[in-house]
Write a structure and sequence with these properties.
The chain is 33% helix and 25% strand. With 186 residues, the protein is of the alpha/beta class. Helix 4 packs antiparallel against helix 5. The C terminus is likely disordered.
């Protein structure tokens, strides 16, 4: 895949900005060029929030998203603003609990139990990391190994084990895939 656009959309406090930064780090390891932008309401929790990545082999022609290849939506209220940017080949990942009415159209929708899985792991705040695992499992974005390396570099040590488990859960849940053996840390 050459150039593509990704949006993480939801509400404040769901870790969307961190997800985008982790993925940008992983994409940088894969020798991609990334332009990141973000928008959020001036509340620390609950307001609309999104973070966008424009990914390119070379210099991005335009640094803002115009036509999404991937949309992650973790809150129903954040869906409508992104719908006009979806195209036929888009992949949409929506949380079953916080997005009870996922979009429909000429694009692929994966309605996954992201926050429920996070709760089963003991902390709903890792739903964003579960989402990253699902995203790279479903899309031709980057390798699991690069994403795991990015998580290791950007997550505080006391939360690393939980976040690595969340990453693996997301990767496995997306299409029943197993984590690549080459990416499993010893």
């Amino acid at each position: 895949m050459q150039d593509y656009e990704i949006r993480f959309s939801g509400s404040g406090g769901q870790g969307l900005q961190l997800s985008a930064k982790i993925l940008a780090y992983a994409l940088n390891l894969a020798d991609k060029r990334i332009a990141q932008s973000q928008s959020y309401e001036p509340t620390s929790r609950g307001g609309l929030s999104r973070s966008d990545l424009v990914v390119s082999e070379g210099v991005a022609v335009y640094p803002l998203v115009t036509s999404l290849d991937y949309l992650v939506v973790l809150d129903q209220s954040a869906l409508d603003i992104s719908l006009p940017l979806l195209k036929e080949q888009s992949i949409v990942i929506a949380d079953t609990r916080h997005v009870p009415e996922p979009p429909s159209g000429d694009f692929s929708v994966y309605h996954l139990p992201l926050s429920e899985t996070a709760l089963k792991l003991g902390n709903e705040r890792v739903a964003n990391i579960i989402t990253l695992g699902a995203l790279i499992s479903l899309g031709d974005i980057c390798s699991y190994g690069f994403l795991e390396e990015a998580v290791r570099a950007m997550v505080p040590g006391k939360f690393l084990t939980l976040n690595l488990e969340a990453l693996g859960c997301g990767y496995s849940m997306a299409e029943g895939k197993d984590i690549p053996e080459s990416a499993v840390a010893g």
